[in-house]
Design a protein that fits this description.
alpha+beta; 4-stranded mixed beta sheet; two-stranded antiparallel sheet; 8 strands; cell membrane
């Protein structure tokens, strides 16, 4: 069900966020690290909707920190510490999974995030069904601008790898997938990105 999938997505992303935090905590100047709050599945046998999710209520200004598409430019992403650290988290997960997985829709109050999504390059990556179109990954690679937190964690610039992929030669494409193989994996019907109803927050 959608509700179970939602729990699985958020709690998977939460595990990545914990690993990210553990790595960032070793860096003195990194400071506070964004956290994805847990989401719990509850069963309600007597109700017509047998499953529901429960999570901590976030009080304060709710901000979307990550790009949904090229048209949306959210300045709070670039100008706030939480926004920059969310972009670094996306870059970190992307690098850790060799470009196979991206945590999307990073949004919440301050450093506490919820309603996240996951896009995977191939269906069933590590047995995981993402709930966002993998075009999000292409887009992230094209739009992400590294910041000081990416540098602190020693993440490689995506600009360089993106250009290398475009003019990939058989000699230089060590760990990079060839741009042709990436294009062949486009599904016939790309799923629409999820939409959130902002009034819930």
């Amino acid at each position: 069900s959608v509700v179970i999938q939602e729990c699985y997505v958020q709690n998977t992303a939460r595990e990545y966020a914990k690993l990210y935090a553990a790595e960032a905590e070793h860096l003195e100047s990194f400071g506070e690290v964004p956290e994805i709050i847990p989401i719990f599945l509850i069963q309600r046998p007597a109700n017509n909707i047998p499953y529901a999710t429960v999570e901590e209520e976030l009080v304060g200004e709710f901000v979307k920190y990550s790009v949904r598409d090229g048209k949306e430019v959210n300045f709070l992403r670039r100008d706030s510490e939480a926004g920059q650290k969310c972009c670094t988290f996306q870059h970190w997960v992307y690098e850790k999974t060799n470009g196979n997985l991206l945590v999307t829709d990073l949004q919440g109050v301050g450093m506490k995030l919820t309603d996240v999504g996951i896009a995977t390059l191939a269906k069933g990556y590590k047995g995981f069904k993402g709930n966002c179109s993998f075009s999000f990954i292409e887009q992230f690679r094209a739009l992400h601008q590294c910041n000081e937190y990416c540098e602190m964690l020693g993440l490689k610039s995506l600009r360089a790898t993106h250009q290398k992929q475009r003019k990939a030669t058989s000699t230089k494409s060590k760990n990079l997938p060839n741009s042709s193989t990436v294009k062949k994996m486009v599904p016939k019907k790309a799923r629409e990105p999820r939409d959130f109803i902002s009034s819930e927050h």
